[in-house]
Design brief:
The chain is α/β, with parallel strands linked by helices. Helix content is 18%, strand content 40%. The chain folds into two domains: 6-74, no CATH class; 92-146, 2,3-Dihydroxybiphenyl 1,2-Dioxygenase, domain 1 (Roll). It is globular and about 55 Å long. This is VOC family protein.
């Protein structure tokens, strides 16, 4: 079997980031919290005395318990610069009813806007609204709506 299971975000403050994704982007708790440590985790991560806490949140638009956004914190978190054109994982995208009002919720909950909110029409006649933003810890998210 092959199936997509989750995307992991390492947070400086897991509880704050979990609250952001639940409140702003409609992710929901599925009751899978984690408080992990042990020799097996040290071996898996390559980090001595690793300790992970966090929760799995079901992504909006899915009825069951997958796929999830796995938000974890380690006791020690490394910081790095995130930019929209950095190689590797760039952003998480969420289709929303109203990009403008969702962007305002992002900003009211500690996020920031990247670039401009853009409205465009494609050759097939579909119209879309897009905005890039960051969550309250600087992870890049894309907001989009289609008509």
């Amino acid at each position: 079997m092959f199936r997509y299971v989750h995307t992991n975000i390492i947070a400086k403050d897991a509880q704050k980031l979990i609250k952001f994704y639940k409140g702003v982007l409609k992710c929901r708790s599925i009751g899978e919290t984690r408080d992990l440590r042990g020799e097996w985790l040290d071996r898996l991560t390559g980090i001595s005395n690793a300790h992970i806490v966090g929760e799995h949140l079901c992504l909006p638009g899915y009825d069951k318990d997958h796929p999830t956004l796995e938000i974890f914190s380690y006791d020690t978190v490394e910081n790095s610069c995130k930019t929209i054109n950095k190689s590797g994982m760039a952003h998480l995208a969420f289709e929303v009813d109203d990009v403008e009002s969702t962007l305002q919720l992002v900003l009211q909950n500690g996020g920031n806007q990247i670039g401009e909110l853009v409205k465009t029409e494609f050759a097939d006649g579909r119209k879309a609204v897009f905005a890039y933003a960051t969550d309250c810890e600087g992870n890049i998210i894309e907001l989009q709506s289609w008509s």
